[in-house]
Amino acid sequence: MSEKLQDVEPMVYRSRISVPYHWWAGDTASAFFIALRDEQKIVGIRCSECKRVFLPPRKMCPDCYRENSEWVELPPTGTLRSFTVSRRKLAAQHKEPPVIYGLIQVDGADTALLHILDEVKPEEVRIGMKVEARFAEERQGTVWDIAYFRPAS
Amino acid sequence: MERAAIIGIGMTKIEANKVSDTFADMAWEAVNKALDDAGMTIKDIDNVVTTSNDFWDGRTISCMAVGDAGGVRGKNTSCVEGDGAFGAFYGLARALSGSYDTSLVLAHCKGSESVSSLITNAAFDPIYERKLGMDMITASAMQANLYMHETGVTSEQLAMVSVKNHGNARLNPNAQLPMEITVEDVLNSEMIADPLHKLDCSPVSDGCCAVIIANESKAEKFKKKPVWIKGVSFCADSYFLGDRNLTDARSLREAAQKAYAMAGITNPATEIDVAELYDAFTYQELMWIEALGLCAAGKVGTSLEKGVFNISGKMPVNPSGGLLSGHPVIAAGLIRIAEVVRQLRGEAGDYQVDNARRGIAQGINGVCGQSHCIWILDKEK
Lengths: 153, 381
Hints:
heterodimer, A: 5-stranded antiparallel β-sheet, extended, B: Peroxisomal Thiolase, Chain A, domain 1, two-stranded antiparallel sheet
């Protein structure tokens, strides 16, 4: 169909969509962020049925379909379950590459948290290594209240 | 399952940047090709399912904007936000519902028009994760890293998937990236997110696919010999990456077991003749082959090295060149279905698999294969 129009100069309409949002974090995530911001504590939440501890905390257990009910205070230490080294500057990434992304299973949690690693060279990162959270000096109740995870001392 | 069949398929060429077509123009082309293929007119279609993603289209309710090109005027039309294989599931359910006979399923995407990394970043939870800046490639790289760590699959073996699929694409006129490359070329290509090199990743693409599904009352009333749908299943896993065992592909195994049971398949590796799988990344093709039971457990790497998954091999996988050779998101799973139809009809030209009687197609929705839709198609009723 484009054959008969092949001499048409392709026109491009350039634009961007910019819509402000504010997502209410909800009671469960709010409790997590408040503990992080005010007490530098990581808290998980336990399923009343399977007893697994979820981090990040959310209202329901996806397997048991029960409401998670019991808050559990967790230590700032954990195990690196997997990672990647992002070599390109990604469009939504605020840090300069390389950035090490990791799935960190905090001790006492049954699920892993997505975050970044620092104070370690990319070539020294290993699946299974022990890591610890470094809390941000200034905390505002966001995921960046954990500045990053680093190899456990 | 009551019988239903695929009676028409239409695909645009997959290209990096279709400057002459809007997404609706692509849909117009794919739908007309599918109607011609089936020997139908738009009047023979009694309902339409479009598949699209508003972020990629840069337009809300974009399913309504593609409707004109899908011939929806005066018809029941609905939209699936996700992969086209899931849209086809919905179209099948409608054809079997007793209310409709002929479903037109449409899936389109123009990856070229936006920034894929930003759009896939928006798939992450805005409260807990999105600010970290990850995208589909970095998340998949973590899955790849764990897969290699647990299975011993090597970077060289991942590279062989890229060599195979880009090589197959040379035989497919619709493919975006036909390439004659070597394992070294893949390993020497830019490292994007360890362990994934540029040539381990599928490209950004534009393309559209249309498929026509009919129930038994109408399946044999048109031009083409129907390709029969013998088993279909769709299973989802948990949303958060850290909840899942990323190398287990639980939802894929569950979907496959159900689809195999419907189709009466007990040994997929010998009973399936051709597979079109969702190889968004090289490692995924290997993970999915294992989870689908298309090779013996733990043998995927050595089977690959022996050429088992080549077009001439015992279990050809992605003879079309797969997503690595062209990845219009959303359309990709529907293209897998259409490619299997081509194989079973004996219409796959230079990438035809000999004696293809039964095939499997896979669609994925969600980051790192959160949900899978599996189709078992058969040449015979």
